[in-house]
Amino acid sequence: MKNFNDIPFSVLEITKDGAFISYNNIFEKDILPFIEEKNNIKDIIQDFNFDKEEQQGFIQQKGYNIIVKKYEDGYRLFFNEIKVLDRYKTTVGLVVIDNYDEVLDSLEEFRHPLILAIVDRKIKKMVKDLGGVVRNFEKDKYILILTQESLDKLKEQKFEILDEIREIDMGNTIPVTLSIGIGTNGEDLDENMEFARVSIDLALSRGGDQVVIKNGENYQFFGGHAKEGNRNSRVRARVKAYALTELIEDASNVLIMGHKYTDLDCMGAGIGVYSIVSALEKNCKIVLNNVTTSVSYLHERLVAGEKYKNAFISSEEALKLVNRKTLLIIVDVYKQGLCECPELVDKAKKIVVFDHHRKGVDYIENAVLTYHEPYASSTCELITEMLMHINKTIPIKQVEADAILAGIIVDTKNFAFKTGIKTFEAAAFLKKKGADTIRVKKMFKNSLDSYNARANVVANMRLFRENIAISVLEDYIENPLLVVAQACDELLNIDNISASFVLCKLNDTVSISARSFGEVNVQIIMEKLGGGGHQSVSAAQIEAVSTEEAIDMLKEAIDEYFKEEE
């Protein structure tokens, strides 16, 4: 490193991975004594961004403007202390009682004021102990203002308030849960407030009972270990159904798109939307590039009829149909990169999103209507709600009812996972419309090769951390992703297995399916690998790695998850 001792502020030289190489005298005097022998920039400033040339960071409550200069072997960082720190230290938070109405419904009326008073007292005590300010602005919502120092204390405590609230017992059969969204490091309080709004929306979209912190462009997550609550309000569904009708009627044409490697929930949801659009007499197409084995039987049934004979088109054809008044309806996916045709998201002016996966940070932001409910068993359940509450009678063919019911059955594992009251109501509605469980069951038939491959995956399973099953699909079969998912479910049937992970290699990408009974939050583990999903059902795809490298990355993510849980 060149001699930077003549520069009147701290200078640090690091490797491409953030490890210290050398530093000047001022860094040694002003910063080094306060970093507790840490020797990697990511351990000191968690939100440090190697690709951002100018950024801000805190080290022991001192704020710095950091200039990042890249060179061949690493980076040089130039620290300039910020003298006026008040606006940078102030953070804004929003607190929501996730299941306010549901908890009160589970209690006798005379206990309502008691449990609300306990929740209120615990929230206000937490903030008061930290020297912050909190105000209740709606029956189930609070706004809080904290210093950066107080926020750091909460992070060190891993937001124990979530556990304290959940443990309140006044005879309520449903535990009370909180969601907290916090904005920090914005340009001013107004931007921090906007960060807090985005954070609380994200926390609720991920199932609640968690904290999301938006620090500039970065996010941090805490909690999220409780199962999603099952809300039974029909008002929200009616409002969404009315809004969807208005958008369809105002559109010149409609395009429906799901995710790559289409499954039955994605296909069924698309068919449900297609039936609505057809009833409203609008031109509609479904974007589908490849028919996977899991939907091939259903696809054959659909295209055999006149209604769906020309319903499916490729991405190239879809892009040609987009105009200023085209409505793009996306089902069973919230990430643009996972869509069947990501370019459509950029080209369409009006977008609607229906999804039930717990939302991550890279979601589609420019949707005019979003019905994103992590409590729902499947996207097909949400679409069935649209069919039930839309202000028009929608004629549904038997094959359409079968398709939507199949989506519910496959995502609930025959009504075993994430099944609530509304799930059975949706299934009953579809039965009335002509769905037949025998016909649906035929969609799940497997070939002998697939059955044998699944058995090999189970037989070759290896234990990790005593109760985590990890296996690899090594057989070459026609539909590996379906077999991987089925084998993952099968592994959970083995005694003492709390979570299962099955990998398979597709071209240069390793796909991972993850399952659990809820004790292990596989969504958090998969998010560490760039994936996502639900607390008990999740997945990820890792590009440009070998299967052995992916297994090592998976084990590292699992270890990191359990370390955070300690």
What is this structure, in a nutshell?
It is built from 21 helices and 23 strands. The radius of gyration is 26 Å and the shape is globular.
Characterize the structure shown.
- This protein is of the alpha/beta class and 566 residues long.
- The protein folds into 4 domains: 10-83, Beta-Lactamase (2-Layer Sandwich); 87-223, 2-Layer Sandwich (Alpha-Beta Plaits), CATH 3.30.70.270; 239-442, Alpha-Beta Complex (inorganic pyrophosphatase (n-terminal core)); 448-565, Roll (Diaminopimelate Epimerase, Chain A, domain 1), CATH 3.10.310.
- Helix content is 39%, strand content 24%.
- Strands 7-8-6-9-10-11 form a 6-stranded mixed β-sheet. The chain has a 6-stranded parallel β-sheet with strand order 14-13-12-15-16-17.
- Strand 9, helix 8 and strand 10 form a beta-alpha-beta unit.
- Helix 14 (379-389) packs across helix 15 (398-412) and helix 18 (448-459) packs across helix 19 (480-491).
- The radius of gyration is 26 Å and the shape is globular.
- 42% of the residues are buried.
- The mean pLDDT is 89.
Task: Using the coordinates shown, work out and report the CATH topology of the largest domain.
Answer: inorganic pyrophosphatase (n-terminal core)
Question: Uncertain runs with pLDDT below 50, 5 residues or more?
Answer: none
Strand content: 15-25%
Radius of gyration: 26 Å
| Reported CATH architecture of the largest domain | Alpha-Beta Complex
- Largest beta sheet: what is the strand line-up? 7-8-6-9-10-11
Judging from the principal axes of the Cα atoms, what is the shape? globular
The total count of strands amounts to 23
Mean pLDDT: 89
Q: Report the total helices.
A: 21
- Give the number of domains: 4
Category by helix and strand content? alpha/beta
